[in-house]
Amino acid sequence: xxxxxxxxxxxxxxxxxxxxxxxxxxxxxxxxxxxxxxxxxxxxxxxxxxxxxxxxxxxxxxxxxxxxxxxxxxxxxxxxxxxxxxxxxxxxxxxxxxxxxxxxxxxxxxxxxxxxxxxxxxxxxxxxxx
Length: 130
Hints:
Layout: H1 8-14, E1 19-21, H2 27-33, E2 39-45, H3 50-62, E3 70-76, H4 83-90, E4 98-103, E5 106-112, H5 117-129
Parallel strand pairs: 1-3, 2-3
Antiparallel strand pairs: 2-4, 4-5
């Protein structure tokens, strides 16, 4: 993937946002490179997935409490072009929702399915401290 063709409008839209959508074309910059500055959770989800819609508001409540030390990238795997499903395959997501945590360009942990807010906070806290 070449970053030379990066969509700069997308870059401005993501900027310092705590929660943002990303895709195959922007994943390297939005997640892998950005995770050298702060941890990035990636929520792989699908529109048809009921548990995804339960987990999403939990993640959206938790992320702002970390004062920018953690960002949330959302990857919609059932987008029309199907490209983002390749990301799910690259990271061996076996079901949705699957949440991966990246630190310094590397996946450090993951969980899948709906979890309570207390689990999500403990998951983040544990891996931020590592």
